[in-house]
Amino acid sequence: MKKLLSTLVSVGVVTTSLMAANAAITAVKVDDSLSRVNFSSPVWAKAKFSDVTLYPQTTIKMNDKNANALNEGNKAKTAKVAAVHNGNDIAFMIKWADGTVNIQQGYKTDVYGDGFAVQFAEKFDEPNALPYIGMGSAERPVMVHLQKAAKGVYEPNGKGDVSYQVNRNQTDLFNKELAAFDAKVKQMGSNDYERTFVSEGFRSMTEIKDGSNRSYARLGRDGDNWAGTLSRPMKDGYVNLHAGAIPVAFAVWDGGKMGRNGLKLLSSWVSVKIEGEKGGDALIEALGTPAKGDAAAGKEAVAANGCNGCHQVEATDPANLMAPGLANIGGYATAGYLRESLVNPSAVVVPGYNRNAHSNYMWYMEENGKRTSTMTDYSWLDEATMNNIIAYLQTLKAEVE
Ligand code: HEC
After folding, report:
1. How far apart are CA 299 and CA 86, in angstroms?
2. Residue that is last in its domain, among 288, 317, 352
């Protein structure tokens, strides 16, 4: 009986932490080749799907009235995520509901595509000091794989009309040669969108174009869902994913709501257990354990400490351009990150994507390339108040659709 009771108690504890944070995903070890998987590859039958919730990123408001109106009151979405690896390559699938298909058209700047991204941290040996979720940060780089639904149109003149670009009356090709030429143009046009970046903050995003990484990302329709897949080596010159657990983050864009750049749904860092590799417990615990504080007391402490003077804290509070919006911070920040933001605001400086629009309210100062946050340092707060504030910040997130 005693045994049964203690089992029940521990089950109860697990349930609370599942509610508060994303549980670890398991990357199942398989023998299949993973270099070119898509969502219908048979390997996914061996995978375990887990729920990952993605929240509207509300760090800044874009300078785009139409887009802002479309995204007012966005809810969170729970996606199904799975991972498999074979010791050399690792593959992910993220499946999320989106009833409308939006394809990016390169030549029309106001038509945006649905898409997804998978983000890896280059360094994750300190689970409470992971890179900034929104694109890495100084000295904490991330690697981002991005794929969008895009119509491949070969468009050297940007008009999106191949026959206009290729003046057939002026080619000296006929019959078979002309057919081969057309096929070639079509092939050039069907290049997909897939891009990979190394980033230490938004303004330092560098696209890898020299072929020094290998990856394969695909996007497919599965009923009313998009299913995005990414496969890549477990180790390349940028990241080494041979570890007991690795942090991975996911993002999705809705082109129908003019989603692009920071206008997206974003998960927190989620731990992915690599089946067959040892270690990783500290990471899994750091990402899966909610703060121990009292959220109601934390809300009072936030008001008493003037956080609202700079931040829009809850979605119903007035917008405040002096600092990042916190209305969904509990959805995409880890407890460790929230603590670090208070104790050492300059450890990770939110890049402030749209700095020109906030020129009177600098989010950071920059000297010799080093950024210092303009946020007050709260390292003097006592431990209980700190825990209460973190517990409250973790409750700040949109409801799930
Ligand atoms: C003087 C203005 C100011 C005050 C007061 C202030 N902050 Fe900030 N805060 C900022 C600025 C500016 C940033 C962005 C730069 C950075 O990353 O530090 C920021 C960043 C943050 C972040 C990271 C946000 C993200 O999107 O990653 C959190 C969390 C945060 N603050 C919480 C708080 C809390 C909680 C309080 C009150 C205890 C508070 N802040 C008080 C200005 C302020």
Report:
1. 46
2. 288
User: Which numbered atom of ligand 1 lies nearest the CA of 378?
Assistant: 38
| Three-class DSSP category at 318 | coil
Q: Is residue 7 part of a domain?
A: no
Expressed in angstroms and rounded, the spacing between residue 311 Cα and the centre of ligand 1 is 7
Question: Which atom of ligand 1 is least distant from the CA of 363?
Answer: 12
Q: Report the C-alpha gap between 146 and 132 in whole angstroms.
A: 17
Distance 340 CA to ligand 1 centre (A): 11
Same domain membership, residue 93 and residue 25 = yes
336 pLDDT tier (thresholds 50, 70, 90): very high
CATH number where 368 lies = 1.10.760.10
Which residue lies with its CA nearest to atom 27 of ligand 1?
Answer: 350
368 compared with 240, residue with greater pLDDT = 240
pLDDT at 154 over 90: no
Whether this model's pTM surpasses 0.90: no
* 4 within a domain of the structure (yes/no): no
**What is the pLDDT, as a whole number, of residue 7?**
37
Among 50-54, 63-67, 96-100, 218-222, the minimum mean pLDDT is found in 63-67
Min mean pLDDT across 60-69, 196-205, 270-279, 293-302 is at 196-205
For residue 75, what pLDDT is reported?
96
Instruction: Name the residue with higher pLDDT: 352 or 400.
Output: 400
Closest Cα to atom 24 of ligand 1: 324
Report which protein residue has its CA nearest ligand 1's atom 30. 341
Closest CA to 397 of 267, 243, 207: 267
- d(C-alpha 38, C-alpha 393), whole Å: 37
**How many domains does one find in the chain?**
2
Q: What's the 96 CA to ligand 1 centre distance in angstroms?
A: 31
Domain of 383 in residue numbering reads as 295-395
Written as one string, the DSSP assignment of 364-400 is: EEEETTEEEE-SPP-TTS-HHHHHHHHHHHHH--PPB
Q: Which residue's CA is minimally distant from atom 23 of ligand 1? A: 341
Answer yes or no: is 204 within a domain.
yes
Beta-carbon neighbour count of residue 257 at 10 Å?
A: 21
Q: Which residues line ligand 1 (CB under 6 A)?
A: 59, 302, 305-307, 309-311, 322-324, 326, 329, 333, 338, 341-342, 345, 349-350, 363-364, 373-376, 378, 389, 393
Residue 309 located in a structural domain: yes
- In a shared domain, residues 79 and 227: yes
Same domain membership, residue 204 and residue 69: yes
Whether 265 and 312 map to the same domain: the answer is: no
| Shortest-distance Cα residue to atom 42 of ligand 1 | 375
Last residue within a domain, chosen from 288, 321, 337:
288
Q: Are residues 322 and 371 in the same domain?
A: yes
